[in-house]
Amino acid sequence: MVRVLGVLDAAAVRRWAVTCVDALEASREEIDRINVYPVADGDTGTNLLHTMRAALEALVRADVADAGGAVAALARGALAGARGNSGVILSQVLRGLAEEWAGAETAGGEGIRRALIRADALATAAVANPAPGTILTVLHAAAAAVRECDGDDLAEVVVTLSKAAADALAETPRQLSALAKAGVVDAGGRGLVLLLDALAEVVTGDRVERPVGPQRLARLAEDLHAEREGGSAEFEYEVMYLLDSSDDRRTSTLRAELAALGDCVSVVSDGTPDGAGLWTVHVHCNDVGAAMEAGVEAGRPHRITVVRFADQVEAAPKRFVRERAVVAIVDGEGIAELFRGEGAVVVTVPPAQPLDTADLLAAVSGSRAAHVVLLPNSTHFNVVVDEACAQATEAGQDVVAVPTASAVQGLAALAVHDPARRAGDDVVAMAEAAAATRRGELLIAQREALTWVGRCQPGDVLGMVDGEVVLIEPASAVTAAACRLADRMLAAGGELVTAVLGAGAPDGVAEALAEHLRHTRPEVELAAYPGGQPDAVLLLGVE
């Protein structure tokens, strides 16, 4: 016999999040196909899935034992990983639960009632001039239903709200001309119904199966002219970014400045104490630079996405506006400029911080390329890279990671990249170039340790080739160590040495290395660049 839950605890919240991800994975393509509003770009299902995955990942990482802490973790993860309008709204729905359940071990029917009413208010406030017939309409109907629901029985409340949401979804084609013209229900609303049905399934043990609703999609790309939710046609770009800011006054000023630049403005946070200072920002405008400058004045913008509406409509129902792209992971601003100069999309990893799957996925998806080559440039990111590749591939992009263990191998791979070549042949050529590049680095020892060439002390200079320590020099001998390391690497031959100088490299290292090679290896060409990487004093590549 299936046990009907009387309350939701942390374990039940986690089961709900897992069920949501499973449901969105199963229905992603279906939801993408019916996505015609506000822009017919076919990505609402993908955006909801990525946002909910980010929420679940945050919950899995969090150490929480109560329902309030669990939904707070979901809200923080959703805000950080929000994709598109639907993702922003989903983050605010979860924020409503987090605010109402703060500190609560469990939540029952009354808790669901309060949380959904709060979520409705937050999500509505996140969108300027919301139009009828969207995900907000479906959410409002669910909130109204639980407000009028008799009793506080958890099962009764969740079944009531899921049915009300489904009924409201069926009405959306009568409320939006774009939906009626395409013969579909609202894609975001369909996603929300899936999430509420998942909650009912966790509570009651009964799986809810609902049809998508009426749809006729054959002529979608040919004659559907997309509208914009609450927005004017005079604005050409959609700008989204996360913002680190602990000053509410500055974010209020940002909201006003963005409103002067365009419309569809939202500046929202997850509203929880641990997440204070993290905001997601959205605006439709013409001056992208001004929108970014306003964010810089308010705090630190990051994970920036800019979409040109005309590209979305022209490409409908395809999501991609170009065939190929290269995404590179780097850890220094100088290295980032090198890769950007070669046309790569760059993901910068801040010092002493892990690479986040959501950041990497945002860059891969934001490239808007059908085929993406990913350059990890480190062995430390393998798990995140594999997960991002799997999720992006499942979402419809062809993503392949070339095994580059250092930025010098990534630069070698990028040097032979040819967008005119067949995608498979190009990946092979890049992988071969990376494999043919020996990688070396100079590091400063942080503690005493036993290496293959002896014991090192804190402050010693360690020379490494392909991940193994091959020499140890005193702290004062960085330049000598660089020359010795180059000699060691060139002993097996080589024609080109690439040197990337770290943030801690002393003055004159590049010049001394060039002079040394001029005398000992005149046939070898040296290319030296400022990299700014925080860990390695010097990166060397030999081709």
Automatic annotation (TrEMBL):
SUPFAM superfamilies from the UniProt entry: DhaL-like
Superkingdom of origin organism: Bacteria
UniProt cross-references to InterPro entries, sorted A to Z: DegV_domain_contain, DhaL_dom, DhaL_dom_sf, FakA-like_C, FakA-like_M, YloV-like
Record-annotated DhaL domain positions: 11-201
Pfam families: Dak2 (PF02734), FakA-like_C (PF13684), FakA-like_M (PF21645)
PANTHER family assigned to the protein according to its UniProt record, in alphabetical order: DEGV DOMAIN-CONTAINING PROTEIN DR_1986-RELATED, PHOSPHATASE PROTEIN
The protein's name: DAK2 domain-containing protein
Source organism: Allokutzneria multivorans
